[in-house]
TrEMBL record:
The lineage of its organism: Bacteria, Pseudomonadati, Bdellovibrionota, Bdellovibrionia, Bdellovibrionales. Pathway: Cofactor biosynthesis; NAD(+) biosynthesis; deamido-NAD(+) from nicotinate D-ribonucleotide: step 1/1. Residues 22-202 form the Cytidyltransferase-like domain. It comes from Micavibrio aeruginosavorus (strain ARL-13). This is Probable nicotinate-nucleotide adenylyltransferase. Keywords: ATP-binding, NAD, Nucleotide-binding, Nucleotidyltransferase, Pyridine nucleotide biosynthesis, Transferase. The keyword ATP-binding applies. The gene is nadD. It comes from the Bacteria. One of its GO terms (biological process) is NAD+ biosynthetic process. InterPro entries: Cyt_trans-like, NadD/NMNAT, Rossmann-like_a/b/a_fold. Its EC number is 2.7.7.18.
Amino acid sequence: MSFISEPHLLDGPRWAGMRIGLLGGSFNPPHAGHVHNARVALAALKLDYVWWMVTPQNPHKFNGDTMNYAERIAACRALTAQHPKMLVCGLEGELGLTRTIDTLDMLKTRFKRTDFVLLTGFDIVQTIHTWRHWRDIPELVATAHVARPPALDLVKRAPLRRLPVRNRTVPDSATAAPLEPRNRFYLLHTRMVDLSSTKIRNSTE
């Protein structure tokens, strides 16, 4: 259980100088794969915390079996209860934000002195070009993608390669590399959790 309260709109100074990972998604439902990605990023990038950014509605996923927002928030809190450096964040729900670019704009305004890195699974490397204003995302924050060999070979065909970067970093041990915009991290890890929210939903039908 975390001994620090979840972030809210008016407590920007509390997070000043911290390194925060942003793990976004529907979390419908949250699962061990999400925890795994957060733990890899915490260790590899020496993050202070990972915020689980629960979206009220994924603009790429419209289906009738989505748990309501309160249920997904509660499920995330239950799953992260034993991980004190993982905090569930409901700011997107409070503000009605559903696009990553809008969320990042809000965070950079409200938490001016916090260093953020957007965390994703490696699948996002292949699909981020479908997001609104995707080219602007790495101009706002560093990005990091959890992968395992030989997944990096897929980068050669990914639209993400079109974007300019300051640094492409593949840390093989803990690092405190600057979380600066246009820094892109590929977090290699040999153990991966073969889970997805879709698989879990399908298995219960």
